[in-house]
Amino acid sequence: MSNEQHDATTASVSADATPGSTPDSTADQGRFGVLVQPDLSYRRIIFDDAAARQLLASGGVEAEVEEAEAAFEQEGERYRALYNAGAAAAGEEPNPIASMARNTADTSNPDFLADPTRAIRGPVIFAAREGGNLGEGSIDALEQAIRALENYRDDETGEYELWHNAVVNRDGEASGEADQSE
């Protein structure tokens, strides 16, 4: 299964980001990035702040966008991972690539299973750190990381499920505590 099958369209954000192309950013177009879903499907997108809030929305509610530093290689380039701060409360699935990229940037350890408390949930937009565009080298690094995670998920199903369940249970307990305090 080709990763470009992972939906190379760009929703209503822009039609200029196609497989194999890295469009130039303009004030009218926004930034070029990659939207990655928790199931590891992805698509290249051109987005601005309003589009990011819509793309990361959960349950029809516009997202409160937060950022985390991300890396796909221990000694590699650093990126921005944009995600919905309310994704866990909305019941979104854990995003393993975003969780791995955050852990790699924070600790130089790509083992996202090591800390389910730092997991990111829901769709994530990966973008350049300083507001620029991702280059083809960055896209290649992301695609390699996605392939590695797909292989891990397939080969180590039990370990992956333990991580997934730890994230979901932790976030379920946290939202239950918040509901009880209201």
Average predicted confidence as pLDDT = 81
Q: Could you estimate the helical fraction of the residues in percent?
A: 25-40%
Number of strands: 5
Major sheet: size, sense and barrel closure?
5 strands, antiparallel
- Strand sequence of the main sheet, in spatial order? 2-1-5-4-3
Spans of at least 5 consecutive residues with low confidence: 1-27, 176-182
Number of helices: 4
The shape, in one word, is: globular
Radius of gyration over C-alpha positions, nearest whole angstrom: 16 Å
Structural class: alpha+beta
Content of β-strand? 15-25%
Q: What letter string, H or E per element, gives the SSE order?
A: EEHEEHEHH
Q: Give the termini distance in whole angstroms.
A: 46 Å
Helices, strands, pairings?
Blueprint: E1 31-36, E2 42-47, H1 49-55, E3 65-71, E4 78-84, H2 96-107, E5 124-128, H3 136-155, H4 157-181
Antiparallel strand pairs: 1-2, 1-5, 3-4, 4-5
